[in-house]
Each structure stands twice: as structure tokens, then as C-alpha cells.
Automatic annotation (TrEMBL):
Transmembrane segments: none annotated. It comes from Brevundimonas pondensis. Residues 9-29 have a biased composition (Pro residues). InterPro entries: ClpP, ClpP/crotonase-like_dom_sf, ClpP/TepA. GO terms for biological process: proteolysis. Belongs to the peptidase S14 family. PANTHER family: ATP-DEPENDENT CLP PROTEASE PROTEOLYTIC SUBUNIT (PTHR10381:SF70). The keyword Protease applies. This is ATP-dependent Clp protease proteolytic subunit. GO terms for molecular function: peptidase activity. Residues 1-39 are annotated as: Disordered. Keywords: Cytoplasm, Hydrolase, Protease, Serine protease. It comes from the Bacteria.
Length: 321
């Protein structure tokens, strides 16, 4: 009789190895958390166009609203780690100022820790705003953005570079699609519209990343040109907290200057919208300024007033056309 123990036994049925656990996705840092932030944890960089001849502007009506609601608004407190953006985005022909990526990068090099960005701007060149956003997101420490009066258009993109965003109760954030001035036939304009689409999508992605809103919702807000008050911005995720009212003041001198220069910026945009080139619009406005600033010699006052009147009439006709 054969011993069963000495006989080869059938192999046990194969048992499938337990599935490997998927690595857990590291938790994302909650919006508004104060602490060390690494640039690589922020949203991806925004695309900056290689075509330097195309500029995305802020419309004249935005300058009008900034003059009425936010001109002269400033912060009461300043510090060595503060970068202020109380101007248009991009180089400004009318003042020689403006907020540029080059200037912001230079300021950031002198700040070795957390940085605070104070904004009150109607926007300007959207693509310069993209570049400034990229500069801020590469800062290796926490970036706090404080909207003092308005962060419209390109300035709203810069705002999204903040790891924490604070906004005044009576301040505004405005978002819209890239706004350009273009001329040409239907094929030219169709080509330009297609060229702009990736930039609008990139903006949408950045707003979605910060707010957690649905992409279709944000795209509709961009299409509609949406203005958000302080509480609305927080409710929709565009900001994290309200600024204390005692942190904001109105500088009357700055307010007067903001409004004066804004009249020139708005007039320039209106002339360009009417079909005039930017250089021609600026030249015409400069002629009007020259007539206005002419010495009020009694012997020449009437002639100067007549010349100014003619220039203003010509300007009005151009805009209406």
C-alpha cells in the first residue's frame, strides 16, 4: 500500500495577490492657510504671447468706474516686504509709470521672506499681467494679496497669484476675457479670435484653481464681464477674507491725480475704439493738452480758447464716428 504522504500532492489553487494600494494624493493646502508656501505648489504659469505687437487692453468704461469708485484708495500700513500696485498694468505712456513684470521681479529679489502685494488697479495690458502673475508665483515664500480698491482685468489675474487674498468690503474684483482692439477683414478677425482662445482658457483655469468653481461657470463669468464686491468675491472663492476697514484710507492728492490721468487713458481708449491708431490718438490728446496748458496771456487767450474748442469738436466727432 502506497503511503499518501509520499505521493506528490496537487499544488494549492493560486490566490490572486491583493491589489496594490494606490498612493494617496497629498492633501492640498487650504486656501488662506498662513504658512510656508513653495512656488511649485501654485498653479502652472500663464502663457505669455511671443507676438509683442498684440496688447490686451482695459476698456474705457473700466477706467471710468475706477475713477469713481477706487481712485486714491491706499493702504495705511507699509513695510519692507510690501509691493504696491496702485497704477495701470504695463508701462503707462501718460505718467511714465505703470506696473511691469520687470519692476516686480526687481522688488521681489530684495524680499527674502513672505511678501504682501497691495493692489488698486483698473488693469491694463493683460499679457503684462500674465507675466507679473508668473513672477509672483515663482516666489518661494507665501504671497498675500490685498485688494485695496479694485483689481480689474489684468489686475485680477495678478491677484490670483496670492496664496491668501484679502479684499476690502467696498472693493471690487472684475474678470473678463482678453479685450483687444483689432482691424481687418473677417478672416483676419477669425484668426485673431482663435489666437486669443488659449489665453482666455488659461485665465479660466487659474480662476477655477483658486475658487473651486465649475469651469463652465467661470467661463460664463468671463464672457459676461463680472464685477464682484468684497463679500461676493469671498462667497465665490475669489478672495479669502475681508480687509479691516481701518487698514484702508483715501489719499485725496492721489485721488485727484488718479482721476486726472484716468481721463487721458479713457480718452485714448475711446479714440482707438473709434478706429484711430494708438500713436495718432496720443498725438491728438497731446495737442489738446498743449492748447489747454498754453499761457493765459490776455492777448492770446481768445485765440487759444478758439483753437482748443476746435480740437475738442474734432475729437468729439471722431469718437462719435
Amino acid at each position: 500500500m502506497t503511503d499518501r504522504a509520499s505521493q506528490p500532492q496537487p499544488a494549492p489553487p493560486a490566490v490572486a495577490a491583493p491589489p496594490r494600494a494606490l498612493p494617496l494624493k497629498p492633501p492640498t493646502q487650504p486656501r488662506g492657510l498662513v504658512g510656508r508656501v513653495k512656488a511649485k505648489d501654485r498653479p502652472v504659469a500663464l502663457p505669455v504671447p511671443a507676438r509683442k505687437d498684440v496688447h490686451a487692453f482695459t476698456g474705457p468704461e473700466v477706467f471710468d468706474r475706477w475713477s469713481e469708485d477706487a481712485a486714491g484708495v491706499r493702504a495705511l500700513e507699509r513695510g519692507d516686504n510690501v509691493i504696491t500696485m496702485f497704477d495701470v498694468i504695463g508701462e503707462d505712456y501718460w505718467t511714465g509709470g505703470g506696473v511691469t513684470a520687470k519692476k516686480v521681479a526687481s522688488q521681489l529679489r530684495a524680499i527674502t521672506g513672505p511678501v504682501e502685494v497691495q493692489i488698486n488697479s483698473p488693469g491694463g495690458d493683460m499679457f503684462e499681467g500674465f507675466a507679473i502673475y508668473n513672477v509672483l508665483r515663482e516666489h518661494p515664500h507665501e504671497v498675500t494679496v490685498k485688494v485695496m480698491g479694485m483689481a480689474a482685468s489684468a489686475a485680477s489675474i495678478i491677484t490670483m497669484a496670492g496664496d491668501r487674498i484679502e479684499i476690502g468690503a467696498s472693493s471690487f474684483i472684475m474678470i473678463h476675457n482678453c479685450w483687444v482692439l483689432a482691424f481687418g477683414n473677417r478672416n483676419d478677425l477669425r484668426e485673431l479670435a482663435d489666437w486669443l482662445a488659449p489665453f482666455d482658457q488659461a485665465m479660466c483655469d487659474v480662476y477655477v484653481a483658486h475658487t473651486g468653481q465649475d469651469a463652465k461657470t467661470v467661463a460664463k463669468m468671463l464672457d459676461d464681464e463680472t464685477w464682484l464686491s468684497g463679500s461676493q468675491a469671498i462667497d465665490k472663492g475669489f478672495a479669502d477674507a475681508l480687509l479691516a476697514s481701518d487698514k484702508i484710507t483715501v489719499d485725496e492728492n492721489a485721488k485727484s491725480e488718479d482721476r486726472r490721468v484716468n481721463e487721458l487713458r479713457g480718452m485714448e481708449r475711446s479714440l482707438i475704439s473709434a478706429g484711430m491708431s494708438r500713436d495718432a490718438a496720443r498725438a491728438r490728446i497731446d495737442r489738446i493738452r498743449g492748447a489747454r496748458d498754453a499761457a493765459p496771456d490776455p492777448a492770446t487767450r481768445d485765440a487759444g480758447a478758439s483753437g482748443l474748442s476746435a480740437l475738442l469738436d474734432n475729437l468729439t466727432a471722431t469718437i462719435r464716428a
